[in-house]
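User: Hello! My lab partner asked me to get a predicted holo structure for this protein. The small molecule is flavin-adenine dinucleotide, SMILES included with the sequence. Please write out the structure tokens.
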Amino acid sequence: MTNAHRKFWGWGTEDQTASAEERAFLGAALAKRYATALPTPVPPPKVEDIALRAPRLAVPSNLQRIATTDQRERLIHAYGKSFPDSVRMFQRHVPHPPDVVVYPESEADIVATLDWAGRAGAAVIPFGGGSSVVGGVECDVGDSYKGVITIDLAKLAGVLEIDRESRAARIEAGVFGPALEAQLKPHGLTLRHFPQSFEYSTLGGWIATRSGGHYATLYTHIDDFVQSMRVITPAGPIETRRLPGSGAGPQPERLFLGSEGILGIITEAWMRLQDQPKFRASATARFADFLAGARAVRALGQAGLYPSNCRLIDANEAAGAGAGSAGSLLVLGFEGADHPLDAWMSRALELVRDHGGLIVNDQPKEGASGHRLGAAGAWRNAFLRAPFYREVLVPSGLIADTFETAITWDKFQAFYATVTSRMQEVLARVTGRPGTVTCRFTHVYPDGPAPYFTFQALGRFDALLDQWRTIKEAANDVVIAAGGTSTHHHAVGRDHRSGYARECPPLFADALRAAKSRLDPQGLMNPGVLIDPADRVVGIRGAMRPG
Ligand SMILES: Cc1cc2nc3c(=O)[nH]c(=O)nc-3n(C[C@H](O)[C@H](O)[C@H](O)COP(=O)(O)OP(=O)(O)OC[C@H]3O[C@@H](n4cnc5c(N)ncnc54)[C@H](O)[C@@H]3O)c2cc1C
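Assistant: Hello! Below are the structure tokens for the protein in complex with flavin-adenine dinucleotide.
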């Protein structure tokens, strides 16, 4: 992928956008929902619409080959892809772009760039696909840094080695999802890590954020596929050993999984792979109410069946996606490379029926297309298109965002009621009219689900950022207060720091800060994300600052 046509203000490339039919459908649905005509949308920005401050750093001669201060490049690397990122781009508000973007072609280039950053007193932001939705690649690092260097890993994108016997591969961190799968396919192998952002996110980004992918159960996070990794820290390289398992003390990989670029740059990893699946079974069920569906999902999660797909979608979200209005929808799927899955599916459907589910669609066992048909297919299509709808919603003044968490089953019912009612109350208070809050499960564990909430309300274009901040902070607050985690798979970044600070034991936060001081003594790496470096307080978005 080149950056020539990559949108700096939205998802994907400039030729990928909501179609005229989708715009018309959304416009009509929203006007009806909010009983008002929507304001004329603000057009998307052009590169020349936004004045950026002059770069504050002079690139040394040994790095000029791989560094750029091009305006489009600085814009592409200024923000991630969250709702507030999109708002600020449509508002043409980019006060803190990176000064320089570097595209290393080798680890030696990364070492040289970190050395330069140290000499220059500049912050360093590791950048994969830039699909962060939590402010993870933001360059607003405060005045104690002399500038910001963003290191984009896009040129380190190869599958370097394949160990067919152990079913693993050594892979460079900057590879995007489709290019990774294309390199594995000739070997009959797959990573099968498909976050919704798969097309525009990278292996290094997935590892650094503990991304959640394709599998609804068992292998929910990228963590489960990481065998070993290599990280370049400002204090030197760290490479962990390739092992199928080990009990030798705290596992070094664990320190870097979820480190969000604050300890160093992950350059490559040995990843555990799968054979391409040959057997699939899928089914769709309806439940009169979401909590009955949740009980069925708990039974499924605790039965040891491990479905690859187990997505419970509440009635409003299913209806909004065009997947019918007859209650909550459960999309269930099994897949594997070794044996037919009929027995697993039969038992799963028994459990669904035992909990009041109505099977509406039991797809052919070995067809790959079950999840693409009927209500499940309609929901899947809306899910894949949703990232493009933001560029219709934001310029019309809509607040539309999501948050995700995990909670144990014993607390789930009260949690769901509390979060939903608190969010409805805050949307109405902030915007002066009711909004919508919907929920689905993205992943399921024997001891609890990972609920994913989507909210929408009609705001005011010029006030969107402040309105969003108030709502987001209420979400952070209620999720932690009601017993959930600040994030299940979107990472902490800057936007979840207030929640993370409350759930992370203080002594552990001190230990993490000490590890950072050892690996990054000058506090150069991604300041403002996860924790503040020792002795520095970094600017993070307004109300998002932890107490
Ligand atoms: C439409 C959409 C859908 C999404 N769906 C999902 C989903 O299904 N599951 C999910 O988990 N997330 C999802 N996300 C969030 C995002 O895609 C993930 O956090 C993803 O893992 C980020 O990967 P990236 O390569 O884009 O990383 P970036 O956004 O570039 O970076 C993310 C963080 O990791 C750090 N980082 C990146 N690369 C490296 C590296 N090589 N070494 C060290 N640090 C690094 C960055 O500094 C930053 O803090 C979605 C986002 C969007 C916009």
